[in-house]
Amino acid sequence: MSLNELLENEHKIYVDVTVEHHADGRIIPLAFTWEDGTRYKINKVLDMRLAASLKAGGTGLRYTVKVGATQTYMWLEEDKDVLRWFMEKK
Length: 90
Fold this sequence. Notes:
Elements: H1 3-7, E1 12-14, E2 16-21, E3 27-33, E4 39-41, E5 44-52, E6 59-67, E7 70-79, E8 82-88
Antiparallel strand pairs: 1-8, 2-3, 3-4, 5-6, 6-7, 7-8
C-alpha cells in the first residue's frame, strides 16, 4: 500500500497525541487531537497489545483508552522507522 493510499483511507485518521515516556520504555497516551481540532483528555489506559485494525487497516500497539464515559482504541504504528498514532473514524 502506498503512502497516498494510507493517507486517503476513509476509515483511518492520524492524530496528534500527547504522551508520557517512562524510563522502563512504556509510552502512555495522555490526550489526542481529533481532525476537527478538538483535544480529548484520556482518563485511563485500560489495555495495550499488538493488534490489527480490521476497519481501517494497519497494525501496531493498540491502546484501549477511556475518554470520558467512552471506551475507544488508538494505535501506535511503525512504518520504516516512523511512529504515528491513528484511530478509526466512526
